[in-house]
Design goal:
InterPro entries: ATP-dep_AA_Ligase, ATP-grasp, LAL_C2. This protein is an alpha+beta fold. It is built from 10 helices and 19 strands. Strands 13-12-9-10-11-14-18-16 form an 8-stranded antiparallel β-sheet, with helices on both faces. A 4-stranded parallel β-sheet has the order 3-2-1-4.
Length: 392
């Protein structure tokens, strides 16, 4: 049995290598070769972001290999994997389901028809009447790319006159800003039944960039968890995701749960590692294995009561110092990765790509975990010096 994985990174490839099947990786031309792993059948290059040439590759190269399934855990590979699976008649996520999760406006319209209570008020950027009505109702509006990721180009707009013309297009989704706490929910579905592997509480900047994730979510009690799980199950039923992984972001305000977005893949930002640390389940392996009949399994090793990822940020400028690996008072640092050094430029924090590194930690409880996150966030781990502009 052969599983085709589209666009794997090193972590996904390592997880795939533990499955009891042959794994064939399809990656973009010019990508650095993956490390060898057990059960890897090979690695092929194809431009899966260009549909016509990729479908020709599917017909000419993949079809003769008779794979059992085609999947992807990377955002840019999801639609290609779905199209390949449909074309080959093998296991995969249906293309229409992937489109309903990747296209934020399409997701809003699906929910409006099937689960409207999960939506905020919204409008397409090119719907002049809808945009005007959204602002007329009062309160700030969030503008985001219909197909965006990583908090890129997400903006809070207070007044209609502040919305630029280049955001008044079909490529932009506008929606009422929703108050409350934000959570990421990891789910594995099978035959329409949704199993919840973990809920992380998010910390974000005023510009919507994520700077921390804590699992389990400190502010959710048992009733709150059930409410979030019910909402996510309704969402997945509405978009038709019956099988495979999903990562859904929601906000809660009192008893109301509002869906922010969803994806048919595990979350990024080290969230699969938080699932593994707190449950023992290799989330990446489970997110691949469902397609070839391999269910989740608990890996060997200790399970932590709580875990978190924290992202390093700094003021724009040029890096002057990078602190040594810290030792939080109430947690254990299990991973520390700083991507800058003195002299490097630091841009304004506009998206996830502008963060400067990540720490992963475990703690004996959610309160200790939250305290450790606050401690690390407050430390001047990277300092910068403002760069003076030269004369014009």
């Amino acid at each position: 049995m052969t599983l085709v994985v589209v666009g794997a990174d090193a972590a996904v490839a390592r997880a795939a290598g533990t499955l009891p099947v042959e794994v064939l990786h399809v990656r973009l031309p010019g990508a650095a070769p993956l490390e060898d792993g057990a059960g890897v059948a090979g690695e092929l290059a194809a431009d899966f972001q260009h549909a016509p040439s990729f479908l020709a590759f599917v017909d000419e190269v993949l079809a003769p290999l008779r794979p059992a399934a085609v999947v992807s855990l990377t955002e840019l590979g999801l639609e290609a994997a779905a199209a390949a699976a449909r074309r080959l008649g093998v296991t995969g996520v249906p293309p229409e389901v992937v489109r309903a999760t990747r296209n934020k406006l399409e997701m809003r319209r699906v929910l409006a028809a099937r689960a409207p209570h999960l939506n905020p008020a919204f409008a397409a950027g090119d719907d002049a009447d809808g945009v005007a009505g959204l602002f007329a109702a009062g309160g700030p509006v969030v503008a985001k790319p219909v197909s965006g990721t990583g908090s890129n180009a997400v903006a809070l707009v207070e007044r209609p006159e502040d919305l630029p013309e280049d955001r008044r297009t079909a490529a932009t989704l506008l929606e009422r800003y929703v108050e409350g706490r934000e959570f990421s929910v990891e789910t594995l579905s099978s035959g329409g039944r949704h199993t919840f592997l973990g809920i992380a509480e998010k910390g974000t900047t005023d510009g919507f960039v994520e700077v921390s994730h804590i699992m389990p979510a400190p502010s959710l009690d048992a009733d709150g968890r059930r409410a979030v799980e019910r909402a996510v199950a309704e969402l997945l039923d509405a978009v038709g995701l019956t099988d495979g992984p999903s990562h859904t972001e929601v906000k809660t305000d009192g008893e109301r749960v509002t869906v922010i977005e969803t994806h048919n893949r595990p979350g990024g930002d080290g969230i699969p590692d938080l699932v593994r640390l707190t449950t023992g389940v290799d989330w990446r392996r489970a997110a691949l294995g469902w397609a070839v009949g391999v269910g989740p399994r608990r890996e060997e090793g200790d399970v932590a009561p709580a875990a978190a990822t924290v992202f390093l940020t700094a003021a724009p400028g040029r890096v002057t110092t990078v602190a040594p690996r810290p030792a939080p008072a109430r947690a254990t640092l299990v991973d520390w990765d700083v991507t800058v050094e003195p002299g490097d430029p630091v841009p304004p924090l506009r998206s996830s790509a502008d963060r400067l590194g990540m720490a992963t930690l475990t703690a004996p409880g959610t309160a200790d975990c939250a305290a450790a996150v606050a401690e690390l966030t407050a430390l001047p781990l990277v300092t910068t010096r403002a760069v003076e502009e030269g004369p014009r």
